C-alpha cells in the first residue's frame, strides 16, 4: 500500500527534505548545461579556427546575454494563461528541452565551413542556448518564494540550491578533461559536441526530477500597475551612479568576472602547453574550491561579528596575495611550479569565496542605502543594472584575454589536410609563448583581485557601523540580514 503524504493546513504536501533535494536538482540541471561554457573559447579558436574574430563575437553575444534576462523575465511575468500546475514549472520544462538543442548548437564541429557561416553558427547557437537558459533559470530562481513562505524553509532551499550548484560544477570540472582532450593535449571537437549533448540530456533529467517533486504552496498573481511611471534609462543610470555601495559592489563583481573569466580561458591553454596535463586541470580547480566549502558554514557568524564589507576586504587582500604568488615560476616547469600554482590558487579562491558568499547581500544593503538617502526603493533598477554590468564583464574578460593571447602568438598555425581548414595546433605553440601565458594568467588573477579591493575597500562605504546606523534609521532590527547568500552557476564558474 502506497504511503500517503503528510498534508499541511492548506491541503498541500508538508514541506520536507523532498522539496529541498528537488530544488537542488534544478541548479544541478543549470550547471549541467553551463558546464561547457568555459570550453567555448577553446573550441572556437582551436577547433573552428576563429582566433581573430571570436573576441568580437563574444562581446556581441554577451550584450544579448545582458539584456535578455529582463526581457524574457518580463515576458514570463506578463503571461496570464492558466497552466495545469504553475507557469514557472511550465517554462522550466520548455527551457530544459531547449537547452539540449541550444547547448549542442554552440559546439557544431564544422571547421571546414566558410568564415561567414561560422559567424552565423556561433551567434545563432549562443543566442538559442542563452535564451533557453534564461527561460529555465529565471523562473527557477522565482520558485523559491512559491514553494514555501516560511523563512526556515526558504533558508533550507537556498542551502540545498548551493549544494546542487556546487556538485553540478564539480562533477563536469573533473570528468570532462578526461573526455574532450586527445592524448597530445589537443581539444577533440567531436567529443566536445557529444559532451554538450550528454550534458543537455543530464540537465533535462535533473529538471524533470525537480518539476515532478516540487509542491507549490504559495499562490500569487502579479498584477500590472498601469499608473506606474515609465522607465527612464538615463534617470535610472544617474540614480545608480549616485548609489556608492551599488557602484562599489558592481565594480568588484566586474573585476571578478573580467579577471576570472579571462583567466579561465588562459588557464585552459596553460594546462595544455605549459603544464602539459589537461587531465589534472579539473582536479586542481577542485582543490581550489576547498577553502570556499570550508568557509561557507562559518560565513554568517563571521559576518555578524566583523561585518560584510570588512570581511570581503580581507578576502580581497587574500586574493591579492594569492595573485602575487602566481608570478613565481620555477625554471623548466618543475613539479614545484605546479605545487606553487595550486597553493596560490587555494589562497586566491579563499578570498574570492569570501566575497562571493556575501556579494548579493551587499547589493541588498545597497538598495536599502538608496532608500536611506533618497526615500525611494529601486530594487529593479539596481539589480538589473548590476546584473547587466556583471554579464557584460563576462564577455569582456575572455575577449580581452584572447586579444592579448593573439598578440603573443595564439593564432592559426596549422591546416587540416583533409578539409583545408585553418586551426590552432597547441603542440606547435612555442615554449616562450607558454611561459608568457603562465605570466598572463597571474596578471589576470591579480587584476581581478585589485578591482575587488578598490570596489569593496575604497568605493563601497557601508561598513558595519554605518550599516547599523542605516538599519536603525530605516526601522529595521537587523544584525546580519541575508548574511549568507548562495552563488549562481555563473559565480561558481568563476570560483572554479
Give a verbal description of the structure:
The structure is a single chain. This protein has 18 helices and two strands. The chain has 496 residues and is an all-alpha fold. The chain folds into two domains: 206 residues, Growth Hormone, Chain: A (Up-down Bundle); 265 residues, Growth Hormone, Chain: A. Strands 1-2 form a two-stranded antiparallel ribbon. A hairpin with a 6-residue loop joins strand 1 and strand 2. The longest helix is centred in the C-terminal third of the chain and has 40 residues.
Query: What is the β-strand count?
Result: 2
CATH architecture of the largest domain: Up-down Bundle
CATH superfamily of the largest domain: MFS general substrate transporter like domains
CATH fold-level topology of the largest domain: Growth Hormone, Chain: A
Gyration radius (Cα, Å) is 23 Å
Q: What's the layout of helices and strands?
A:
Blueprint: H1 17-34, H2 40-47, H3 54-77, H4 87-105, H5 115-147, H6 151-180, H7 189-212, H8 233-242, H9 244-273, H10 281-288, H11 290-295, H12 299-306, H13 308-325, H14 335-374, H15 379-408, E1 414-415, E2 422-423, H16 431-459, H17 464-473, H18 489-495
Antiparallel strand pairs: 1-2
